[in-house]
Amino acid sequence: MIKAGDIMIERQIRNFDLKQIADSGQCFRWRQIVADAEMVIYRIPAFGTYIDVMQQGDKFTFACTEVQWENIWQDYFDMLTDYNAIEQVILDSDDVHLQEAFRAGNGVRILKQDIWEIIITFMISQNNNIKRIGNSVDALCRCCGRKFKTAGDFGLPVEEMYAFPKPGEVHEDVFEDSSMGFGYRAPYLREMYAYTAANPQWIVELAHMSYDQAYKELISHKGIGPKVANCICLFGLHHVDAFPIDTHVKQLLDKYYADGFDFDRYAGFAGIIQQYLFYYELLDSDK
DNA sequence: AGTCAGGCTATTA
DNA sequence: TAATAGCCTGAC
Question: Is the distance between the Cβ of A136 and the closest atom of strand B smaller than 7 Å?
C-alpha cells in the first residue's frame, strides 16, 4: 500500500490512539478513510493543510517529511507532553472511576489545534450536539475555505479538501444562510469574524496570555461563556489546567464524585483528566 | 412527537 | 448577585 519513495515518518507511541481522539469531542473534521482489522488511516485537516496518519496498534506512520513533523505535526499531536507521567499519577491515585476511564481511553490526548478554528468551532458548539456541530463546520469550510487537493499519500486517490475559513474569508451573507445550521449563534459568529478581520492582532495577544487572562478576554466576547472559553483555552491555547464543565461532565461529576472532585490533585493538567472522563462518559452513553 | 444537545444572553427579583 | 426564560434546529 505504501509506495516506495513516499516520504513517511514512523514512530512507536504509547498512550496515543487516533480513533479515541477522533471520538473525544475536541476535533470535528478528522475523518477515518481506511479501516480494517489491523489498521486505520485518518485524514486530518489542520492549519490550512492536512496529514494522513496510519495506525497499527502502537505503530504510527505519518505521511509527512521530517521537517513538517518537527515544525507542525509533533506539536499538533502533543508529542512533547509526558502522558506517561500523567498515566502514573492516575495509576497511583485511589480514583477507581478515573482508572477505569483511563483504561478505556488511554490514547486520548489534548491536541494543539489552530486557535481560530477552535474559537469558531466551539462558539458553534454551544447548546448543540456533536453531529450538528460537524455539519455546520463542514458547511462553513466548503462554503468559504480555500480549496486544495490531497497528495495521494498511502496510494490513496486524490480528493479535494477545504481549509477552515480565516477572518476576512467569509462573506456577511453566509451568516444569513440557514443551510449553515448556525441557528441563533449566527450573529455571534458574524461579530467574531468581523472583529477579528479588523483586529487580527487580538488572536496573537490571546496566545501570549496566561490562562486567567485568556479566559477573561474570551468571555468578554458575545457568544463565548464560561464553558466555551474553557474549551478554547484547553483545545486552542493548550492551557491544560482548563476544565470545561458541559452537561456530560456535570452529570458524571454528580454521579461519580458526589463528595467533590479533587481538582488540586490534578493541578496543572486537570483538563487532560477531564478529557479522559468525558471520553469515557460518552463511550458509556452510546451503549 | 418530544426531548435534548459539549450554553449563552438578557431579563428579572 | 443569583436565578431562569428563551433560543435555532437536527438527530434520536
Answer: no
The C-alpha atoms of residue A193 and residue A149 are separated, in whole angstroms, by 26
Contacts of A9 (CB under 8 A, 6+ apart): A61, A62, A64, A65, A66, A69, A73
Q: Is A191 helix (H, G, I), strand (E, B) or coil?
A: helix
Which among A58, A56, A19 has a CA at the least distance from the CA of A38?
Answer: A56
Chain C nucleotides covered by protein, CB below 7 Å: 7-12
Which residue segments constitute the domains of chain A, with CATH numbers given? 9-97+106-235 (1.10.340.30)
Looking at chain A, the whole-number percentage of residues with pLDDT higher than 70 is 97
User: Distance from residue A279 (CA) to nucleotide B9 (C1'), in Å?
Assistant: 29
Residue in this structure with the C-alpha cell 454551544, named with its chain if needed = A126
Angle at A51 between CA A240 and CA A174, to 5 degrees: 80
B6 C1' to A10 CA distance, Å: 33
Q: What is the pLDDT of residues A23-46, one digit of tens each?
A: 999 999 999 999 999 999 999 999
Q: Which residues, other chains included, contact A244 with Cβ-Cβ below 8 Å and sequence gap of 6+?
A: A227, A230, A231, A234, A271, A274
- Integer distance in angstroms from CA A132 to C1' B1? 20
